[in-house]
C-alpha cells in the first residue's frame, strides 16, 4: 500500500511530466491551417494582441479599403470593419471557406454590412495592384507556407502609401520578429512601428521603394 503513496519529490516529478506532456500535445497538435473544429479557441483574445493595440498600429480610418488575411472566426474583422464606415470596406480572405462563412454570419447578426469575403490562398491574392490602403494578418502569416510570397503579394496589392500589419504570437507556427523583419526587407518593406516583444507583437511596415519614389516628388 505504501508504494502507491506519492512522496513530495515524486509528486513534483509527476506534475512536471504531466505539464511537459500537455505542452508537447499543445505544440505538436497545433495544425495548419487552423482547424475550424477548434474555432472556439480563436475567440480568446491573445495577450498583447488586443483590439486596442491593433487599432493603434493599424490606424484604420473611415472610407479606407483594408484587406485582412486569415480572419478565422472574425475576432479582428468585426472590430475593424465598423471603423471603416459606410464608404469603407473590409475584404477578408481565407483558404478555409468555413471561416469566411462564420465571419459573414456573425457580421449579419451584428449588422456590419461592409465586409466582403474572398476564398483564396494568400500566396496568390486575386486583387489588382494598388488596391488596398492597408492589409493585416494576426497569427496567420506563420501558418502559411512560403510567407515570403505573401509579403511580396502584400507589396503588390497595397497602394504606394499603404501599410502592412503583421501580428504574431508564440505557438508552433510563430514567426519571431527577427526572421519576419528579414522577410519584410526582402519584399521591399520597411518597419515603421512595432508593439510588443518578439514573443507577441504587432509590427507595421510600408513599401520602401514606393515611399522613396513618392518622397522624390513629381519632377524625378
Ligand atoms: C490561427 S487562425 C487566426 C485567426 C484570426 N486572425 C485570429 O487571430 O483569431 C489563422 C487563419 O489563417 C488562415 N489561413 C491559413 N493558411 C492560409 C492561406 N494559405 N491563405 C489564406 N488564409 C490562410 C486559416 O484558415 C485561419 O483562418
Blueprint of the fold:
Blueprint: H1 8-28, H2 51-58, E1 65-69, H3 77-80, E2 89-94, H4 97-109, E3 115-119, E4 132-138, H5 147-157, E5 158-169, H6 177-187, E6 189-197, E7 200-207, H7 208-216
Parallel strand pairs: 1-2, 1-4, 2-3, 4-5
Antiparallel strand pairs: 5-7, 6-7
The structure holds S-adenosylmethionine.
Can you summarize this structure?
This is Methyltransferase domain-containing protein. Helices cover 35% and strands 24% of the residues.
What do these coordinates show?
By secondary structure, this protein is an alpha/beta fold. The protein has a single domain (39-216), classed as 3-Layer(aba) Sandwich (Rossmann fold). Helix content is 35%, strand content 24%. It has 7 helices and 7 strands. Helix 5 links the parallel strand 4 (132-138) and strand 5. The chain is globular and about 65 Å long. The structure holds S-adenosylmethionine. Residues 33-34, 42, 69-72, 75-76, 93-96, 99, 121-122, 138-140, 143-144 line the site of S-adenosylmethionine (SAM). This is Methyltransferase domain-containing protein. Keywords: Methyltransferase, Transferase. InterPro entries: SAM-dependent_MTases_sf.
Amino acid at each position: 500500500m505504501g508504494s502507491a503513496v506519492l512522496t513530495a519529490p515524486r509528486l513534483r516529478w509527476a506534475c512536471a511530466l504531466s505539464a511537459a506532456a500537455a505542452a508537447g500535445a499543445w505544440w505538436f497538435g497545433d495544425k495548419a491551417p487552423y482547424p475550424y473544429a477548434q474555432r472556439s479557441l480563436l475567440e480568446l483574445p491573445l495577450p498583447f494582441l488586443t483590439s486596442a493595440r491593433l487599432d493603434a498600429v493599424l490606424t484604420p480610418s473611415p472610407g479606407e479599403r483594408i484587406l485582412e488575411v486569415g480572419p478565422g472566426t472574425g475576432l479582428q474583422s468585426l472590430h475593424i470593419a465598423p471603423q471603416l464606415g459606410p464608404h469603407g470596406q473590409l475584404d477578408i480572405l481565407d483558404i478555409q471557406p468555413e471561416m469566411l462563412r462564420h465571419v459573414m454570419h456573425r457580421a449579419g447578426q451584428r449588422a456590419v454590412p461592409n465586409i466582403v469575403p474572398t476564398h483564396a490562398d494568400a500566396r496568390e491574392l486575386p486583387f489588382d495592384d494598388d488596391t488596398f490602403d492597408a492589409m493585416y494578418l494576426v497569427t496567420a502569416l506563420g501558418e502559411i507556407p512560403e510567407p515570403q510570397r505573401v509579403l511580396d503579394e502584400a507589396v503588390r496589392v497595397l497602394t504606394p502609401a499603404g501599410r502592412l500589419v503583421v501580428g504574431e504570437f508564440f505557438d508552433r507556427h510563430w514567426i519571431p520578429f527577427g526572421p519576419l523583419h528579414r522577410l519584410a526587407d526582402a519584399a521591399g518593406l520597411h518597419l515603421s512601428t512595432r508593439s510588443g516583444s518578439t514573443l507577441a507583437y504587432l509590427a507595421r511596415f510600408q513599401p520602401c521603394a514606393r515611399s522613396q519614389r513618392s518622397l522624390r516628388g513629381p519632377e524625378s
